[in-house]
Design a protein that fits this description.
The protein is of the alpha/beta class and 381 residues long. It contains 15 helices and 7 strands. Bound molecules: guanosine-5'-diphosphate and magnesium ion.
């Protein structure tokens, strides 16, 4: 059963970097992963790409051929991909039934908010058996300004309603947030989208008074849907990537698939085999569902920890991590030196043994000669 993520968000929000980071993380964990580049304007891809839309169509070709600008050409490319979905389907089949696929989308927001082609492609993928989640990246610095925050809330909400997938909104580049000065509220206010009426004051101070009613209307629109919340991401931080991965695994259902255990096809340790019972009565189901639906635990799982790590105590944490990396580097260097020294000793020992073995062979070589020697000794004596 193939799983996947539709990675969308504005240009520069970090989509391609996230795909590359996830590829590195999953490769280290030996989890399957393939990346499909669906951005025909992506000239230099940072990640190893399994399927590249530029084999089908490129932005430059469309611009040259039809005299379109970059935005029009991008819409044409997506419509062309939709019309030639068979091409994508064939290539995806080659990745196998257990593939985990990241779809790196172009940055034009209208593709995931109002244009229909991406929506139709996603529908076709879902029909063909893909379990997908949308991962919508928004640059975290937008939360430093109330009106920009409202605009990313609306954008995220619109993408959720348009794509109709399990949806994870992400504040990306959270490691840079400390650079933009103090936040008006704690980070969890923004990630959990708490009582937005607190923003009304900030909004009315930065906009003319005639917008006050509109601001209130926008705020209550977001609150009425009560759909938007944010995870956070600093792509180079392992625990941040792991927390996001757990949230996405829950959204697309990957967490419900027991991990294969080498040599044990019946499942992970402790699995009780009861295939004849209905699914809801199988003894493993409760454990599986309660761990999948329970709260996320571990370092950096809560917005308070993230605020401490990246905003309040960033310098102290950075210095601590540097010290830990240095220690780890020294340990690796020491271990390498010890390994080399042990190799040298083993080599020397092997050399001496070979020498000794050679003497023994010479000693044993000619017993007849020895007997003659002995006889000569006896006769001389
Ligand atoms: N500091 C920081 N920079 C990031 C992060 N993610 C992406 N970037 C940078 O943001 C820029 C745009 O990223 P890119 O992946 O090309 O964005 P895309 O247009 O959405 O694909 C690049 O310079 C990345 O190095 C992050 O988590 N932290
Ligand atoms: Mg990109």
């Amino acid at each position: 059963m193939p799983f996947g993520e539709v990675v969308c968000g504005a240009p520069g929000s970090g989509k391609s970097t996230y795909c590359y980071g996830k590829h590195q993380l999953f490769t280290a964990f030996q989890r399957p992963i393939s990346i499909v580049n669906l951005d025909p304007a992506n000239d230099s891809l940072p990640y190893p790409c399994a399927i590249d839309i530029s084999e089908l169509i490129t932005l430059h070709d469309v611009m040259d051929k039809f005299g379109l600008g970059p935005n029009g050409a991008m819409l044409y490319c997506m419509e062309y991909l939709e019309a030639n979905y068979d091409w994508l389907e064939e290539k995806l089949k080659d990745l196998g039934g257990d593939a985990y696929v990241l779809f790196d989308l172009p940055g034009q927001v209208e593709l995931s908010t109002n244009h229909e082609s991406v929506k139709h492609i996603v529908e076709k993928l879902t029909k063909s058996g893909f379990r997908l989640a949308a991962v919508h990246l928004c640059d975290a610095h937008y939360i430093t300004d109330a009106s920009k925050y409202i605009s990313i809330l609306l954008l995220s909400l619109r993408a959720m309603l348009q794509l109709e997938l399990p949806h994870i909104n992400v504040l990306s580049k959270i490691d840079l947030l400390g650079q933009y000065g103090d936040l008006e509220f704690n980070l969890d206010f923004y990630t959990e989208v708490q009582d937005l009426s607190y923003l009304a004051n900030s909004l009315s101070s930065s906009l003319p008074p005639r917008f006050a009613a509109l601001n209130i209307a926008l705020i209550s629109l977001v609150e009425d849907f009560s759909l938007v919340g944010f995870e956070t991401l600093a792509v180079e931080d392992k625990s941040s990537m792991l927390n996001l991965t757990r949230a996405i695994d829950r959204a697309n259902g990957y967490v419900f698939i027991p991990k294969p255990v080498p040599g044990n096809p019946s499942g992970p340790p402790g699995t009780v085999n009861a295939p004849n019972l209905p699914p809801s009565a199988r003894p493993n189901t409760y454990a599986l569902f309660s761990s999948a639906a329970g709260p996320l635990k571990g370092p950096g799982a809560h917005a308070r920890d993230i605020q401490e790590r990246w905003i309040d105590e960033k310098e102290a944490y950075d210095a601590f991590e540097k010290r830990e990396w240095r220690k780890e580097g020294e340990m690796i260097r020491d271990a390498e030196a010890r390994r080399k020294a042990a190799e040298e000793v083993a080599k020397k020992k092997e050399g001496t043994e070979r020498q000794r073995g050679g003497i023994r062979i010479r000693e044993r070589k000619d017993p007849q000669k020895d007997r003659l020697h002995n006889q000569m000794d006896v006769s001389e004596g």
